[in-house]
Specification:
Blueprint: H1 6-13, H2 16-45, H3 51-56, H4 58-75, H5 92-95, H6 106-116, H7 118-132, H8 136-149, H9 151-160, H10 171-193, H11 195-201, E1 205-206, H12 209-221, H13 225-239, H14 245-248, E2 256-257, H15 261-282, E3 285-287, E4 293-295, H16 303-322, H17 338-349, H18 360-376, H19 379-395, H20 398-412, H21 424-440, H22 442-467, H23 472-479, H24 485-501, H25 504-509, H26 521-534, H27 541-558, H28 565-572, H29 606-626, H30 633-650, H31 656-680, H32 690-694, H33 706-734
Parallel strand pairs: 1-2
Antiparallel strand pairs: 3-4
């Protein structure tokens, strides 16, 4: 063995020998993996399978690759074009992994891909960084474009990282910063190079605010995929913190560790905010007029970035599941409080929708997480989750829309079973948001609405059949399948959907075209009327009130005539309004908004009678106000006025308070009758002219009539009482 030279001894004593050997070994590992990929690619193409043969045919492969790239550019977006045999995805579905989502392994296998392809992604990331480095003027222009394209993210930078937006420093300062940056990058690269040794001894890199700062700068200024990958690896470690080994799974394989709450919050917010910006730079998209999303695929497809996005999305879903939500309506700051972090995660997850639409496995998991939050969390989280579902619905194809419609109704049903004064506002919010989703695509909603309304009819039919068998115990049990909160809420929900979709305003906006959902009005009304006829007991008058309110919504919005007066006046015919039967008591007044069945202790009491009378007068006023602009109004109210006057004369109209309210109602109805008779004296068409009859008082609301104006004031009084009751309930809950 020859004698060592002085130069070698000096080099060895400087400490660089170890680094050189380590770098050489890493280079050999990367080269070996690249050779394996070339061999695998050659096997797929039917070419030489030996590594040496691959190197000998390198020139030919380069030519073939150029030809394949040209074919890829021509066939991208065409169904059935390309495939994995060429080594490049040819369609959007292949690009974002629709085929691989159904394979075994699930989320864990996808997360593991992040580690197995580190070297390949680092090389691609370095190439991208070299291409994307901009000068000072270019960065200023890029920041202006960012402010236009994503004002929300730009505002976030101004509020939290304003110095990242500052440019135009002196050359000396820039040179110093560049040197500092080089030193930091060298230090960071040393940490990355020590990764293999650290994994061997079980050590991990502790994430610091300085490291996060470097990643932020690289992602913002260079759109660095390499920095994005490091950020996502650290984010995965943060998402799996404080978990057992069995639960944590692949989170244990990450090379980063989080040691403080400040770093955790900064890392999570950075990942959520910066990831969509970097991905949008490499995979841009356009939002079309109707909310559809069109991806603008690059000429050179970056499949490692695709896997990176899907793997990150799986981690993000895991984080959202693990974050608890509070029922409080007060939203915390994004950097403070668990609820604020959950809201931020939900809102930022919607920005990744363009790249997961084709990944149906991830999309289903995402929808399930959102609907779980929508059906069980506080109102602030509930609204954020629904907005994400709505964006998914608008951007997706018919299959995605079908998935959203079917699952949102299924998620709505379980909470409806438990209705209390504390949960009713949240249930109303859920019904309002779900009905909005069904009204976005009436044609697709029809098949779902038809099936679910048919289920309501089947339940009612079974109860009617069981009531004719003569088995008393079975009848009582059968009634419970219909006379419950869930069934009543379903009728109310579908009245919102059909009333909103088939409304007069929508028909005018659609140039007179009827909504596809309008044919379902008749079966829904028949179901509602059948439920009211099922058990005419005074204990279930509160349930009847809920159904009447749902039918009144249909009348008001669609202009459909439904004869509700007989069902309202049946309450006046009951024994509860006989003055001799009313008992005085110390019971509290009932709030019919929160009950569907009255307690037996309230029967034949003064407080129950007055509560029924107040609700009866309000419903009669609402019903006649809704039809007060029709030309046949004088004939419609004649039976009602006669019936009420007969009860007042016989003394079966209840207490003096109820009688006084009924007399006021009669005055308003008669005044409206005179108003309509005056208006129709000047018409020149006959009753057979249906078109002209519908145009009578067209453009005038119910407020122009005496009963309509009176009911407007009654609604204000009723709403004021409702706010006072809700305020008292909130104070009671706080105490």
């Amino acid at each position: 063995m020859g004698k060592s030279t002085k130069a070698f001894k000096k080099f060895a004593s400087s400490g660089k020998l170890k680094d050189t050997i380590r770098n050489r070994r890493q280079h050999q590992q990367v080269k070996r993996k690249l050779d394996e990929r070339k061999t695998h690619r050659a096997k797929q193409r039917g070419g030489p399978q030996d590594v040496s043969d691959v190197e000998n045919h390198e020139t030919k492969d380069d030519q073939d690759t150029e030809e394949d790239d040209e074919k890829d550019r021509k066939t991208i977006g065409q169904p059935g074009a390309g495939g994995r045999a060429g080594g490049v995805a040819k369609t959007v579905e292949e690009l974002f992994g629709t085929g691989g989502l159904d394979a075994e392994g699930g989320e864990d296998s996808e997360l593991e891909e992040l580690d197995t392809e580190d070297e390949e992604e680092e090389e691609i990331g370095e190439e991208e960084e070299e291409e994307d480095v901009l000068d000072e003027e270019g960065m200023k222009k890029a920041m202006k474009d960012l402010a236009k394209k994503d004002p929300e993210f730009y505002k976030f930078l101004e509020e939290n990282d304003e110095d990242l937006l500052k440019f135009g420093q002196s050359s000396k300062t820039k040179g110093k910063n560049r040197e500092d940056s080089d030193e930091e990058m060298d230090s960071e690269s040393d940490e990355v190079e020590d990764l293999d040794e650290d994994n061997e001894v079980g050590k991990k890199i502790s994430v610091t605010l300085k490291m996060i700062r470097q990643w932020q700068e690289a992602m913002l200024k260079q759109h660095s995929i390499r920095s994005l990958r490091k950020t996502l690896l650290a984010f995965r470690s943060a998402a799996h913190m404080n978990e057992d080994d069995a639960v944590q799974g692949t989170g244990l394989n990450t090379k980063y560790s989080i040691d403080s709450a400040q770093v955790f919050n900064k890392l999570v917010i950075t990942t959520l905010k910066y990831t969509p910006v970097v991905v949008a730079h490499h995979f841009p998209y356009k939002t079309l007029s109707q909310g559809k999303i069109k991806l603008q695929l690059p000429k050179k497809l970056n499949q490692p970035l695709n896997r990176l996005v899907l793997s990150h999305f799986s981690t993000l879903l895991h984080l959202i599941r693990s974050l608890p939500s509070t029922p409080s309506s007060v939203v915390a700051n994004e950097d403070e409080g668990v609820n604020g972090l959950l809201l931020t995660a939900i809102r930022e997850s919607t920005k990744l929708v363009p790249w997961i639409l084709s990944a149906r496995k991830h999309l289903r998991a995402y929808l399930k997480v959102l609907l779980d939050l929508w059906s069980s969390s506080g109102d602030d989280v509930r609204i954020a989750a629904f907005l994400s579902v709505r964006k998914l619905f608008v951007a997706g194809d018919d299959a995605v829309k079908d998935l959203c419609l079917r699952n949102i109704y299924r998620a709505l049903l379980p909470p409806l079973r438990h209705t209390t004064p504390h949960t009713l506002p949240s249930l109303n919010l859920m019904k309002n948001t779900a009905s909005e989703l069904y009204q976005l695509a009436p044609s697709l909603s029809y098949q779902h609405a038809f099936g679910f309304i048919r289920m309501l009819a089947v339940h009612l039919r079974n109860v009617v059949r069981s009531s004719t068998t003569g088995h008393g115990g079975d009848n009582q049990q059968a009634f419970k399948t219909v006379y419950n909160w869930q069934y009543i809420h379903c009728i109310d929900f579908w009245s919102q959907v059909l009333g909103g979709s088939a409304s007069l305003q929508n028909r005018k906006a659609n140039a007179g075209l009827e909504s596809p959902l309008k044919p379902l009005l008749y079966p829904l009304v028949q179901i509602a009327l059948g439920v009211m006829r099922l058990l005419p007991s005074s204990r279930y008058f509160p349930l009847r009130f809920h159904i009447l309110h749902a039918l009144l919504r249909i009348i008001t919005h669609t202009g459909t005539y439904i004869p509700l007066a007989p069902f309202i006046l049946e309450i006046l015919d009951s024994t509860e309004f006989r003055r001799s039967n009313s008992k005085k008591g110390t019971l509290k007044p009932l709030d019919f908004e929160y009950i569907i069945r009255a307690s037996s202790s309230y029967l034949k009491t003064r407080v129950f009678q007055e509560g029924l009378g107040e609700e009866l007068v309000f419903l009669l006023g609402e019903y006649h106000a809704a039809v007060s602009t029709q030309i046949a109004f004088p004939e419609m109210i004649l039976p009602v006025i006669v019936t009420i006057k007969k009860h007042i004369k016989k003394g079966t109209a209840g207490s003096p308070k109820v009688v006084s309210s009924l007399k006021t109602l009669i005055e308003k109805l008669e005044a409206t009758k005179t108003f309509i008779e005056t208006k129709r004296r000047n018409v020149s068409f006959a009753p057979k002219d249906r078109v002209e009859m519908e145009r009578f008082l067209e453009g005038h609301g119910a407020e122009v009539t005496p009963v309509g104006n009176w009911m407007r004031l009654q609604r204000k009084i009723r709403e004021q009482k409702r706010r006072e009751v809700e305020k008292a309930l909130r104070e009671e809950e706080d105490n």
